[in-house]
């Protein structure tokens, strides 16, 4: 599902809301999650999962085309861990 499909589904299930309002709500939620991750905070949505940021140390990698050694700098990457309820629903429990 892509963002526009999510907005359309929420709008369809809530006919009392205008689609532009639903779009603003979804955008605000995603922006708040993103801003929290940028600040290094953890975002937990009970029953769904938790977003956090993990640090990857710098390392020496290889260019797959030439085999040449390349320095890869350290970076921060988003990480998502599913909640128990979501895992149970996916596994049919």
TrEMBL record:
SMART domains: BHL. This protein is one of the two subunits of integration host factor, a specific DNA-binding protein that functions in genetic recombination as well as in transcriptional and translational control. Keywords: DNA recombination, DNA-binding, Transcription, Transcription regulation, Translation regulation. SUPFAM superfamilies: IHF-like DNA-binding proteins. HAMAP family: IHF_beta. NCBIfam families: hip, PRK00199.1. Belongs to the bacterial histone-like protein family. Heterodimer of an alpha and a beta chain. This is Integration host factor subunit beta.
């Amino acid at each position: 599902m892509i963002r526009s499909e999510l907005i359309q589904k929420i709008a369809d299930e809530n006919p009392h809301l205008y689609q532009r309002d639903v779009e603003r709500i979804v955008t605000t939620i995603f922006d708040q999650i993103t801003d929290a991750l940028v600040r290094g905070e953890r975002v937990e949505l009970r029953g769904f999962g938790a977003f956090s940021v993990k640090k990857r140390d710098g390392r020496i990698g290889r260019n797959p085309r030439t085999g040449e050694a390349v320095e890869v700098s350290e970076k921060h990457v988003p990480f998502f861990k599913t909640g128990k309820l979501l895992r149970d629903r996916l596994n049919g429990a």
